[in-house]
Every structure is written in C-alpha cells, then in structure tokens.
Amino acid sequence: MKITSITVYQKDLPLEHPYWLSGGRLRFDSLDATLVKLETDEGLIGWGEGTPWGHTYVPAHGPGIRAGIETMAPFVLGLDPRRVLEVERAMDLALPGHLYAKSPLDMACWDIAGQAAGLPIADLMGGGSRTPRPIASSVGAKTVEETREVMTRYRARGYIAHSVKIGGDVERDVARIRDVEAHRAPHEIILYDVNRSWTRQQALRVMQSTQDLRVTFEQPAETLDDIAALRPLHSAPVSIDECLVTLQDATRAARDGLAEVFGIKLNRVGGLTKAARMRDVALAHGIDMYVMATGGSVLADTEALHLAATIPGHACHAVWACQDMLTAEIAGGRGPRNENGHLHLPEDPGLGVHPDEDSLGDPVAHYA
Ligand code: MG
Description:
Helix content is about 35%, strand content about 20%. By secondary structure, it is an alpha/beta fold. It folds into 2 domains: about 5-120 and about 360-365, 2-Layer Sandwich (Enolase-like, domain 1), CATH 3.30.390; about 125-345, Enolase-like C-terminal domain (TIM Barrel). The chain has an 8-stranded parallel β-sheet. Strands 3-2-1-14 form a 4-stranded antiparallel β-sheet. Helix 9 packs parallel to helix 11 (about 270-285). The protein is globular, with a radius of gyration of 20 Å.
C-alpha cells in the first residue's frame, strides 16, 4: 500500500467562550485546525487533525503545521502508511523538531493502518480497554464563587475529573484550592493547572501553604529546571504537560523524579507513535497519565481516547473533550461524544470517525 495524495484543509473552530491564558498571554476566541486526508492506492483513506491551543500558548501554530506538511509531503508520498515507524523517520529526516506539524500525518497513517487491519487504533496498538474514560473539565473561573458555580455545572453533566485553572493571584489561588477541596466528592479527580504562570517563589508560597491537602499541581512553573529546583522544597505531587514535548523530556522527568503525572498532549508530542513511547516510560516508572488533544474537534479527541484506552485504567486519570468547547461541528455528530462525563471507545476500524468533507470548505493544499 502506498500513500498517493495528501490533501490539507484549514478550518476555524470558534470557541463557545473566548479563552484567556494566564500569565499575560493573549486571549483567543477560535482554534486554527488543520485537517489532513491521506489517500492510498488501495482505496483506503485516513484522516488526521492538528489543532494547537491558540498561537500564544506554546511554540505551535496552525500555519506552521501547514508549512511543515508542505516540507514533509515529498518524503511521505509513496510510503506505506501502515509502516508508521518508517513514516515517522521520513518526517524526522525531512523536518527535525516541529513535532506538532507531524502529528496529523501520523494520525492519518494510524487511521489507515487500523482500517487495513480491521481494528480500532487502540486494538492495533496492542489492546484497547472499553471502560469509558472520564473527561476532565476545564475550570477557567477566577473567584471562589465562580469556581464553585462552574464545577457544579460540570458535576450536573456527570463530570468526575476536573482541571481547575489557577495561577493568578497567590492568595486567591490558595483560597480557591481550599474551597474546591472542601467541596470535593470522594471519587473526584482534581488537578490544579497553573499553566506555567507562577514564578518559583509564587509556586512555593502556594504549594507549601496547601501542603496539608496533598493536591496535585500541573505545570507549576515554566521549565523542567524550575520544577526540579522547587522539588526538594515542597511535597505536592506534580503533573507536567507543557514541558513534556520530547521522549527525552519524559525520560529526564522519570529519572530525576520530577513528576508523578504526565499530561500527554498528542499534537504537542508529535502524534500517537511518539506518545506511545512516553506512555511506556510513564508505566515503567509508576507515573500516571492524562491523555488529551492540544485542542480541536472530535477527531483530535478520539485520537487521544485511543491512546488512553491502551493505558490501564488505574494509571489513566482522564481524557478531554475539547469538542464541547466549540461551536463548530465537522463530523455530523458522529464519533465519541460526551456521555455523562465520559467518552466511549469507537468500535469501527481505524480512528472511528471522519469529518464531513463538505463542512471543511476547499482544500488549501494538495500533494500527489
Ligand atoms: Mg495543563
């Protein structure tokens, strides 16, 4: 089987509510999605998606994905999409780094490989659990009262996992954490996500003054060096996601004991092929995981769900449904959807959901 063409679509995915990132980063109200269609000489078609979480969050952006695909396309055309490692090496040879540009192509290859094998991607990767995965909420509220209101709304929809965004004012962060913990149900999974916006000193003040609660902080400071420097000075469990880009990041964090949790974001780390290695590093070192898209439609959520399904349930805390934050629908309601706060693995071979091509407009590039 050979890849005969690569067709690229750009789609704006408006957010239901504009999103402010903490730490002075810019507001955005829409995500720039790149959808990729791979066609083969045997008639199988695979789809991939790459949708960064805005342009100002981390070094990844929509136009960069499309430029990267233009550079990599001549190296990928003609390859067998079922040989995902060969496609991965071809992309790494053609364009070192730029992992976020590679993930949609990797995803489309896995989609085709699954269809060719007659298996959902998770089963092709070695076996996918059918236990529904809890979806993490995204609680971007500012005050104690707003936080309570937003979490109450999520709980009413069945959510048991919550990512509470903190990282503004230190005193307010402590007050919000204490209030959330006071109202926490016994089975709930709660992560306090700082998104790198504390200085080391701010991180220490919050982490030390909430030590009695044993809560988990995600990305409490900018870099792995910062997290390593803070490490001996507090006892809180730490999750890393924005610092978890390469396999070397994962092995360093595991070896040096920098994190108890990995937040694996498929687009950031370069797709399923590379993410699966991080999963194995995590499992080998007793590190738990959240598996998520960086953003995007039901396609991106489904890709992450497939990887999550290959992780034993006790080690996989939650997935995400970014689709619930969007006003655009590109798959006609098909694919895994929020059911009482959980996503269910699709049984169709491959990814298990494809977009309505008509909803994507005209392609922005075609390589053959
Ligand atoms: Mg995070």
